[in-house]
Structure formats: structure tokens, C-alpha cells
Amino acid sequence: MDTGTIIVVAVGLLALSVASGMLGLGVAFAAVPFLGFFMGDLVHEVQPLSLFLNGVTAIFAAVGFAKSGLVAWRPALMLTAVTAVGAPLGSWLAQGTSQAWLWGLYLVAVAYLAFRMFQKGGGPREGAAQHPRLGLALILAVPISVVAGLLGVGPGFLLMPVLILAGYEPKLAAGINAVAVTMPSFTALIPHVDTAEVDLRVATVLVVVGAAGSFLGARLTSRFVSGPTLKRVFGILIVVMTAVKIVTMAVG
Fold first, then answer.
1. What is the pTM of this model?
2. Which residue windows are coiled coil (predicted)?
3. Which of 12, 24, 120, 221 could form a disulfide with 178 if both were Cys (CB 3.0 to 4.6 A apart)?
């Protein structure tokens, strides 16, 4: 990858990192289709780099949310334990799965989540009395982590709407999510270690950019963004990324 292309990729990833940091997601769910424009091999190039970026950006987003007291540590750590075990299984399954099937599964998942985020009444109102259903979130985290590892995106983009639907206020859900997706992002890398083909120069630039962007995004949410707005940001982001990927797949 030449210098000009690296700059373009870095600028794009910065924007995606700010947006994903606002949601406590880690950047992989948006980075996978974005990096797919510049890298040809989904399983051996895009997924390993995206998973590592996901872990790093989630760490910095978690710090940003923690500074504002928006991390509920008990559910965050319980979800971390569940997802950290399931994610490597999904990554292992990805090694022998057709790339066309992986992209198809990715697009179906994000389309469904966009639909749920734009539905009225899907989750608690900001400031309303809540009784979150942690048990439901923990049960759903098992298949979520496997599917996320299969897609190479980390579980955050699936876990965030589940937490909202389970009764967590969107800002608190984002803080919990940022902590919960950090460890599985790295454990999901284990099956990729022997087969990954990553340009270390590109990876270094993207890690620095991603870390800065995700921390900024988390601080923006903590201080300025309301819960309903956060849900809309999530929905818009995944709709845009899905639409772009569909167009490029059709053209290709």
C-alpha cells in the first residue's frame, strides 16, 4: 500500500473510529467493509487487522466512558467473560467458510440491527426508571460472540443493541459495551495468528489513529450526545456501511 493510500485509509478510519467510539463498539464492524475496499483477502488480511483495531479502539473508548462514570462494571465484566470464550470459536469457523457467505451474513446482521435501532420504543427512554435484564444479555452474548468472531468484527455491534433492548439506557449500554468487547477482540485473534497477512506499517498508523478517534468519540457521547441521538447514530452508521458494501459487491 503506497503512502497516498495509507493517508486515505487513515483519514477514513479516523472518522469511523470517532463514530464507533461514540457507541462503545470498537471499530471493526465498520472497518471490515472499509478495509475491504483496499485489501483483497477478508479472512487473512482484513479480519485480523480489524480485530486488533477493535480491541485497541474499545480500550480507549472504555477509558473515555469510565471517566464520566458510564461503565457498570459488574455486567461489563460478566459479559466480557462470556464473549471472550465464544469469539475464538467463531474465528476458527471463519477459516473454512466461504468469503461470500461471510459477507452475506455480515450484511444481514447489520440490516436487522439498523431496523431495530430505528424502531420507536425499542429500549428505555433516557432518564427513565429501568430494570435491565442482565440475564437476557448474558444468554444472547453466547451466540453473538460466536457470530462476531465468524465475521471478524468483535461482538460490539451486535451486543450494543441487545443491551439497549435488554433495558440499559443507551449511554450506559455504550460504556458497558466498550469494556465487554475488548477481551474477545483479542481472543478472536488467536485462530488468525498463523495465517494473518498484515502490513505492520499500515497497522501501526491505523492503531494510533483508531485509538485517538475512539477516545474522542467516547468523550463526545459522555458530554454532549443524548441516548436517542446515540441510537440514531448507530442506525445511520450501519446503514451507510451496508449500502456502500452492497454497491461495491454488485459492481465487482
1. 0.78
2. none
3. 24
